[in-house]
Amino acid sequence: MKAAILISALALGVVPAMAEDVTVGMILPMTGPSASTGKQEKAGAELYIAQHGDKVAGKTIKLLVKDDTGAADVTKRLAQEAIANDHAAALMGFGLTPLAFAVAPIATEAKVPEIVTAAATAVITEKSPFIVRTSFTLPQASAPMAQWAAKNGIKKVVTIVTDYGPGLDAEKWFGETFKHEGGEIIEAIRTPLKNPDFAPFLQRVKDDKPDAVFVFVPSGFGAMVMKQFIEQGLAKAGVKLIGTGDVTDDDQLNGMGEAALGVVTAHHYSASHDSPENKAFVTAFEKANGFRPNFMGVAAYDGMALLYHALEATKGATDGAGLIEAMKGAKWMSPRGPVEIDPDTRDIVQNMYVRKVEKKDGQLYNMEFETIPMVKDPFKATKK
Amino acid sequence: MTDVLAHLRRRERWGVAEIAFWLALVAGIVAFPARAGLVNEALIAGLFALSLDLILGLTGIVSLGQAAFFGVGAYTAAILANAGYHDPLLGVLAAIVPTALIGFLTAPLLLRGSDLTRLMVTMGVALMLGELANREDGLTGGADGLNFTVAPLFGRFAIGSFGEGPRNAALFSLAVLFALLFVARRLARSPFGISLTAVRENRLRAGALGISAAWRIVAIYTISAAFAGVAGALLAETTQIASLDLFEFHRSANVMLMLIIGGAGYLYGGVIGAGVFILVRDVVSAETPEYWEFWIGLMLVALVLFGRERLANLVRLRR
Predict the structure, then answer these.
(1) CA dist., res. A192 & res. A183, Å (int)
(2) B227-246 b/e (C-beta count within 10 Å ≥ 16 → b)
C-alpha cells in the first residue's frame, strides 16, 4: 500500500516537471501540392526559436511539426492527438482554409489557441474564439490594390481569381472598392482550382481591352500566370498586370525572369522591405535554409513571436483562455513592419505596401513604394 | 466433384490466424485509446482498400478513381447530418445508395478498351465529381469544406475528437469493416466470386464457358463503389468534416499503394497494407515531416523487388 502511494506520488511529481515544457503542435502541408507553404512556415518558426532561445518565462518551447498532406481529416486527427497525447499548449500553422476550419471546433472545445499562420480567407477567425491569425486576409490586400489602381489612371479592369473561398474574397473586395473609387470592372473571371490553364482566360482579357488585369491565384501558381501573360501578348497590348502579392511570391519571383518586371501588387510582406529588423531576418533565414523567405515564412516567424509575447505576459501560465487574452492587442515590430492583433477580431492589423517588381543586385524583388499604414481586415470592419 | 466442394468448404472456414487478427485489433484499440484516432484512420483506409481489392484483386479491373465514391459517400453522410439526420449508422447506410448508383451507371464505361483506358476513365469520373462538389458550394461548402456533428452511436457512444470519442469511433469503424469484410469473404467464395476469378484470368475463355463478363464487372463495380462510399461516410462521421481533398487523385493512388503493399486478391491485403502504410507514415513523418514519402517509396520498391505479398505471408492469413 505504501509502495502504491509512493508510486502515485512519484507519478504526480512527474506532472509538474513535464509542465515546464510548452509544446506547440505545428500542423502544415509538408508534402503534396502545398508543400512550399509548409517548407517556408517550418523554417520561419524554427528561425524564431533559434534566434530567441527555446526558454521563455521559465518554460521550454518544444516545436512538433506534423505533416497533414493538405487533407482536412488528417489535420483534425493531428490536432486532436497533439492536444490529447502531447499536451500541446498551442496549435499553429494551417496551410489552407478548410484545414483551419477543421481544427476550429477542437480549439473551442479544448480551449487551446489556434494560431493561423497561413490560410487567408477572411471569416476564419470567426469560427472559434480561440483562433488568432498572424498571416493576412485577402480583403486586406485586395482593397488597397483597388484604391491605388483607381488613383493611378487605371479606369477599366478585368479580374481573374481562382474559384474558391480566398479567390472570391479577393474578387469581391477588389471589385467593390474599385467601383466605389469610380473605376469599372468589365468582366470578373473565375478559373478552376485544379488543372489551371490561364491562356483562354487571358485571351478573353485581351479581347476586353482593359487598362489592367487584377489577378489572384493561390501561393505557388504565380509563375504560370506570368508566363502565359507574356505568351498571350497582353503586355504588348498595353494591359497592366496587378494583383495581390501571391502572384509575385518571393519564393518564385526569381524564376519568373524579366517578364515579371514592372508588375504592381499590394501585400503585407516583401523580402526587400527596408528595415533593420527585416535585413537581419532575411540574412538569418537565407543562411539557415538556402532560400529566400516569403510571406508564409514571416507569418510563422510572427506566430511564434506572438506565442512568446503571450507566455511572457501570463508569466508562463499556459491555460488557453489566458493566452488568448494576452494575445489580444499584442503589438510588436515584425520583419514586415509594425503589427498588432486586433482585440475585437483576433486578426492581424498591419501595413499594406504597394510594390513593383524591380531588379536589385541581379535578383528580382518586390520593391515597396507606397505604404498604407495599419490596415484592419475590411471584411470585419464593415460588419460592425 | 466432391474434392472441389471439400476444397471450397475448407476455404470458407475461419482460420485461427484470422480470428486472432480481429481480436488483436479490438484489444489494440481498447489498450491504446491515445492512438485510437490513428487506428481509426487505418481501419477506414483498410475498408477503402478492400473496396479496390474487389475490383482489382478479384476481377482484375484497374481503377485510379476510387476516391470518387469515397468522396460521394463522405459528402452524403455530411450533408445528411447538416440537414438534421445525425444518426451515424443512418449516414453510413445512406452512403450506399448514391455510390452504388454512380458505380452502376459508370461501370459500362469500363467494359471496353484496355487497362489504360480504364485508368483514364475512372480518374476522369473522380475529377468530374470533385469539380461538381466544388461548384455546388451551397450544398457541399465548396473549398471551405463542411463541418458538422453526429449524434452518439445508438444514443450512447459519442464519436468524435474528445474524451472517449476517438476510441468509440475506432470501434465503430472496426465493426463496419468486419461486417463488410464478412460480406466480401462470402462474396469472393460464392459461385459469383469464383466466376469473377474466371473473368480475371481469361475473359475470352470465361465467355466460352458461358460466363457473361460484362454483367459481372458491372455488378462487382457497383458493390465496390458502395464499399468505398461506406468508407468515405465513416471517415466523414468520425472526423466530422468533409472536404474536397476526399476526391483528389492522391487518395485513389494511395489506396492502390496500400493494396499493393498488402497484396491484392485475398481481401485482407488492403487492411494490412493500409495499416502498414499509415503506421509507417506516422512514425517516419514524425521524424522527417518533409521526406517521409521517400521512405514509403523505398519500401514499395523493396516490396515489389523481393516479393510483394511477403508482408502478408508473414502473418499467414493467406491460403
Answers:
(1) 26
(2) bbbbbbbbbbbbbbbbbbbb
pLDDT score of A384 more than 60? no
Distance CA B48, CA B68 (A): 11
Amino acid at A127: K
Its domain, for residue A69, covers 2-136+275-346
Rounded Cα distance, A167 and A288, in Å:
33
Q: Pick from A260, A246, A241, A252: which is nearest to A218 by CA? A: A246
Q: Which A residues in the span 102-161 are in contact with B, Cβ-Cβ below 8 Å?
A: 102, 104-106, 109-110, 121
Whether B247 and B126 have beta carbons less than 8 Å apart is answered as yes
Q: What confidence score (pLDDT) does residue B316 get?
A: 52
What whole-number distance in Å separates Cα of residue A116 and Cα of residue A4? 44
The DSSP bridge partners found for residue A350 are A339, A375
CB burial string B62-101: b at 16+ within 10 A, e below:
bbbbbbbbbbbbbbbbbbbbbeeebbbebbbebbbebbbe
In this structure, how many other beta carbons lie within 10 angstroms of the beta carbon of residue B161? 23
Which uninterrupted H or E stretch holds A240?
Answer: strand A240-244
Interface of A with B in 10-49 (CB under 8 A): 28, 30-32, 35, 38-39, 42
Same domain, A291 and A175: no
| Per-residue pLDDT reduced to its tens digit, B149-158 | 888 888 888 8
Q: What is the ipTM metric for this complex?
A: 0.82
In terms of CA atoms, which chain B residue is nearest residue A28? B289
Q: What are phi and psi of A129, to 5 degrees?
A: -70, -5
Under CATH, which number does the domain B2-315 receive? 1.10.3470
Same domain, yes or no: A129 and A7: yes
User: CA B280, CA B304: separation in Å to the nearest integer?
Assistant: 17
Distance from CA of B206 to the nearest CA of A (A): 41
Report how far residue A376's alpha carbon sits from residue A344's, in angstroms, rounded to the nearest whole number.
11
- pLDDT tens for A161-189 read 988 888 999 999 999 999 999 999 999 99
Q: Where are the domains of chain B?
A: 2-315
Cell readout for B42 is 487505418
List the end-to-end C-alpha distance of chain B, in Å, as a whole number.
Answer: 21
* Beta strand residue intervals within A80-211, DSSP E: 90-93, 114-116, 131-133, 156-162, 184-191
- List chain A residues with CB under 8 Å of B239: 72-73, 76-77, 102
